[in-house]
Structures are given as structure tokens and as C-alpha cells.
Design goal:
By secondary structure, the protein is mainly alpha-helical. It has helices at 10-15, 24-54, 61-97, 112-117, 125-138. The chain starts with 9 loop residues before the first helix and ends with a helix.
């Protein structure tokens, strides 16, 4: 999908001053990026579904085992894509409610560089690291 010419570029967003953080133009940029990613994921999911439906059972046990392993891998990828689609939907809701770009834990800015790398981020880097540390320590 092409980016409307009225949206700032990634370089312009990175060069913006701190007082422009999550301006309407920046929100529009991230909204479009999320919508583009959502469309790409939905297209990939559709291809996976068609591929899984099109493959007939292989008569040779080795071929069948290879095909089943390939299907398992595709289903894992599809599950990751489904989870990412959910995160994209949540990020789009945050854009609508005005909380996008702000850490859910601290209320601090998440940061443009982090959002460019991970547009679905809802935590600043420090809060994310704390959550991952807790998850590793407590298995939660």
C-alpha cells in the first residue's frame, strides 16, 4: 500500500522536536503504518489458508511427514500473525483514544525510535524490560 503524500516520512518523524511528539501528523503516520501491516498480515493469512486447503494428502510416508511438518510450521506462523493482528487492533484503538505513544505503566513517552521498530508497543523500553524480567523470574 502506498503512503499518502501528506504523511510525514520516517526521517521527518525522527527529526521532529519533542514538542511534536504524537502530533496529529505523527499519529496519522503510525495509523497508516499499522493499517498497512494489518493488510499485509491478512493477505499472508489468506495465502496460508489457501495453501493448507490446496495440499492433498501425500501417499509416500516421508512426503506426508514433510508436508505435516510444513503445515505445523505454517500454523505456528499463522498463530503469531493472529496475535500480532490483535496487537495492531489494540494499537489502533490507542490512537483513537489518544493514549498511543505513551507507556501504559509509567505514562512516559514510548519514543519514536521504539514505535518505528515496534508500532504495537504499549510500554516504554524500561517498563518492557521490567515486565520481561518478571516474566522470566515468575513465569508469568
Amino acid at each position: 500500500m502506498s503512503r499518502p503524500s501528506t504523511l510525514p516520512t520516517e526521517a521527518e518523524i525522527l527529526a521532529a522536536s519533542a514538542d511534536e511528539y504524537m502530533s496529529p501528523a505523527q499519529l496519522a503516520f503510525f495509523r497508516q503504518r499499522l493499517l498497512d501491516e494489518e493488510a499485509a498480515l491478512r493477505g499472508a493469512a489468506e495465502e496460508t489458508t489457501h495453501h493448507l486447503q490446496d495440499n492433498a494428502a501425500e501417499p509416500d510416508p516421508n512426503d506426508r511427514a514433510s508436508a505435516e511438518e510444513e503445515h505445523t510450521l505454517e500454523l505456528r506462523v499463522r498463530d503469531r500473525e493472529r496475535k500480532l493482528l490483535k496487537k495492531i487492533g489494540q494499537a489502533l484503538k490507542r490512537i483513537e483514544d489518544g493514549s498511543y505513544g505513551w507507556c501504559e505503566d509509567t505514562g512516559e513517552p514510548i519514543g519514536i525510535a521504539r514505535l518505528l521498530a515496534r508500532p504495537t508497543a504499549s510500554l516504554c523500553l524500561e517498563a518492557q524490560e521490567r515486565h520481561e524480567l518478571k516474566r522470566r523470574q515468575f513465569g508469568g
